[in-house]
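Regression check, xanthosine-5'-monophosphate case 509:
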Amino acid sequence: MQKNVLILDFGSQYTQLIARRVRELNIYCEIHPFNKLPDDISLFKAVILSGSPFSVRHPEAPKPDLSQIKGKLPLLGVCFGAQYMAQHFGGEVAGSNTREFGRANLSFIKDQELLFDEVLEQSQVWMSHSDSIKSLPNNAVRIASTNDVLNAAYRIEGEPTYGIQFHPEVYHSTDGKQILENFLVKIAEVPQSWTPSAFVDMTVDELKTTVGNSKVILGLSGGVDSTVAATLLHQAIGKNLHCIFVNNGLLRKNEFEAVLHQYKDMGLNVKGVDATDRFMSALHGITDPEQKRKAIGNAFIEVFDDEASQVEDATFLAQGTIYPDVIESISVNGPSATIKSHHNVGGLPDFMKLKVVEPLRMLFKDEVRRVGAELGIDSKLLGRHPFPGPGLAIRILGEVNREKVSILQEVDAIFIDALREWELYDRVWQAGAILLPVDSVGVMGDERTYEKVVALRAVESTDGMTADWVDLPYKFLQKVSNTIINRVKGVNRVVYDISSKPPATIEWE
Ligand code: XMP
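Current build output:
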C-alpha cells in the first residue's frame, strides 16, 4: 500500500471525515491513534493532526510525540491539532467565554499563502471549539482570521507546518477540500494516484502473491462488501475461490434465488445452501433479540463449517471487512456499552484454522462501491440498501416462525418495490418493514378483523451511526399502505416510524 498521508487521531468525531476527504482527492491515507505511531513514519509524505473532544489545557489531554514529524514532514494541525502545536511550541491557548460553533467567514487571508491558494476572503469555514489560540509561537505567522478568531490559521516559518482552527473536512467549510488539496498536493506534493482502477490492479496482484494456488472460501451475503470482495478474488484466482451463499430463511422475498442467479451470471464459483430448516429450529421458542442474534450466529457457523469442510485443502477464508471496522478508535469516554451485538455472523471460530484475507480492509463504504463499479458489478446490486445479518428475524418482534416470515416478506416486497417504482429507493439509506407483536381491530367489507400491525421504516444516514426518518410523500405512503392491507392476508394496519437515531435505533430489536 502506498504510504502517503498519516492522520493522527485525537478522538474527534470528524477524524474519519478527514480521511474520506483525502481519499476523495485520490490520495491514500491511514488513520492511527496519536499514541501509536507507525514504525515507518518517514515513509509517509504528509501528516494531519485531527481535532479532539479534549481541551489542550486539560491535564489528561492527548500529548503526541511529534519529534519525528514536525519540521521533517509537511504537517497540518486541525482544531485541537493546531492548538496543541501552538501551545507546545511557545504560543498560548486560553479558554474563552463564548464557545464558537458553526459557520464563520475568513475576514483575512495573507497574500501568496499556498495553503489558501484559490480561496477567497469571506470563504465560509466551520468552527467547533471553545479554546482559542491567544498568541502564536515566535516563529509562526498568522495566515488567516475570522471576525471572532484572530489566529484562525498559521504557518511556522521555514518549514511546511500549518495549523488551522476550523474544520476543512466538514462540508460546511466551502473551500475545505481546496485547502486540503493545497496542503497535500501543492505543499506536500503527494501524488493523486489512489483511484479505483489503481486499487483493483494493486489488490489483484497482491492477492495473486498472497494466495497463489491455494483455495479460498468466502461467505457471500448478497451485500455490497462480500460481493466486491468476491469479484476481486475471482479476478485474482478464478475457480480457486469457493463462495458459499447461505439461505437462512430470513432473507427478503425471492432474494436467495435472485441473488444466487446473479452471482452465477457473474461467473463466480458459488454454492447456494438452503438451511432454512436449521435456522427455524434454532430460533424456535426464542423471543429475546440478543438470543435470536446468538442463535442465528451459531447456526450460521455450523452451516458454514459443514460446507467449508467439503472444500478440500482450503487454506484461506476471505471476508468483506471494511476500514471503519478496522480503525482503532480512541476511547474518550471509556469502552462503550454493547447496545446490539452487531455483525455476529462475521467472525468464525478458531477451529476453522484458516488464514484470513480481507481485500477491502482499507476501504470506506463509498470506495467499495466505486471499486465495485470499476469491476463492472451491476449498479443495482451495488446500490442495495444495507440489510442486517440476522435478517427479518430482528424485524419480527417476538418469536420467529415461517408464517410470520412469509407475511413480512410480502409486506417488505411491496414497500421496497414501490420505493423503486416511485424512484425513491436511492434517496433512502435503508428501508424495511417490521412485524409488530400486536393484533388490532379492523373492518374489511362487513367483517370485523383482528390482525397484525406492520410498521414501515425508511431512514437517511451516511454510516448507520446516526439516522433520521425520511419524509416520504403522503401519496406514496397511502398507496403502499392500501396495497399492503389489500394484498397481504393477516395484516390490517400499517404505521410509519418517525423516530430518529439517537434516541431510537434503525432496527427495532
Ligand atoms: P441499529 O439498529 O443499531 O442498526 O441502528 C445500525 C445498522 O446496523 C444494522 N444491524 C445489523 N447488522 N447484524 C448486522 O449485520 C446485526 O445484528 C445488526 N443489527 C443492526 C442495521 O440494519 C443498520 O444498518
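Comparison notes: Residues 293, 340, 342-344, 386, 388-390, 430, 464, 501, 505-507 surround xanthosine-5'-monophosphate (CB under 6 Å). The chain has three domains: 5-187, 196-382, 401-496. No diff flagged against the previous build.
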